[in-house]
């Protein structure tokens, strides 16, 4: 029976390394797409509830009334506040589900992708290079690209970095609780 259920003695270093890559990939997905989804749902629920009880002044249908809710500004560009908070929260929770320290490294891949996009950016030719880069990846003036660069490049960087910070905060808090400073 002990051969079927792995114990801490039966897991050797080879199988531990084999578990790290899937853990990293799952946490990479959770820190980017999961945080965006969780943050969007967190903003959409109050938007729908507020729309259900307030008068529609948008001039359109009920979906337009939902889209006009101020809470939804916290979901989108340029700051992605709710997805970033969701990334931090998921990072705090990650130590409950994953034993590896892969959460410390989930920010690396989105950072590489962001930096690559920043240095390989081709502007339209009529605008200075760095202001165009800023507007398309970080600013609120990204209308010419429909802000898709912020959504698919910058937001995963923000959320994965917040995920790592949440993981670090959880580890620091746990370490502090396990080893409190001795009073003088």
Secondary structure layout:
Layout: H1 13-53, H2 62-67, H3 81-97, H4 108-119, H5 129-137, H6 148-178
Helix pairs in contact: 1-3, 1-6, 3-6, 4-6
Describe it for me?
This protein is about 65% helix and about 0% strand. By secondary structure, the protein is mostly helical. The protein has one domain. It is flat, with a radius of gyration of 21 Å. Residues about 1-10 have low confidence and may be disordered.
Largest sheet: none
Shape: flat
Strand segment tally: 0
Q: Helical stretch count? A: 6
- How does the helix and strand content classify structurally? mainly alpha
- When the domains are counted, the total is 1
What Rg, in angstroms, do the CA atoms define? 21 Å
Helicity, as a percent range: 55-70%
Which H/E pattern describes the elements?
A: HHHHHH
Which range does the strand content fall in? under 5%
**Overall average pLDDT:** 86
Ranges where pLDDT stays below 50 over 5 or more residues in a row are 1-11
Give the termini distance in whole angstroms: 51 Å
Descriptive tags:
63% helix; 184 residues; 6 helices; flat; mainly alpha; disordered N terminus
Concise synopsis of the structure shown:
This protein is mainly α. 63% of the residues lie in helices and 0% in strands. It has helices at residues 13-53, 62-67, 81-97, 108-119, 129-137, 148-178.
């Amino acid at each position: 029976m002990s051969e079927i259920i792995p114990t801490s003695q039966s897991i050797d270093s080879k199988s531990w390394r084999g578990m790290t890559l899937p853990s990293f990939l799952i946490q990479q997905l959770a820190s980017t797409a999961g945080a965006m989804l969780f943050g969007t749902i967190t903003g959409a629920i109050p938007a729908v509830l507020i729309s259900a009880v307030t008068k529609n002044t948008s001039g359109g249908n009920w979906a337009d009334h939902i889209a006009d809710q101020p809470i939804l500004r916290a979901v989108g560009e340029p700051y992605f506040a709710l997805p970033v908070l969701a990334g931090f929260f998921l990072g705090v929770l990650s130590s409950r589900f994953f034993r590896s320290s892969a959460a410390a490294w989930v920010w690396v891949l989105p950072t590489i992708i962001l930096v690559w996009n920043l240095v390989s950016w081709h502007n339209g030719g009529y605008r200075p290079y760095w202001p165009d880069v800023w507007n398309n990846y970080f600013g609120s003036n990204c209308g010419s690209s429909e802000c898709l660069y912020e959504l698919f490049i910058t937001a995963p960087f923000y959320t994965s970095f917040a995920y790592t910070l949440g993981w670090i905060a959880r580890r620091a808090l746990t370490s502090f609780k396990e080893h409190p400073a001795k009073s003088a």
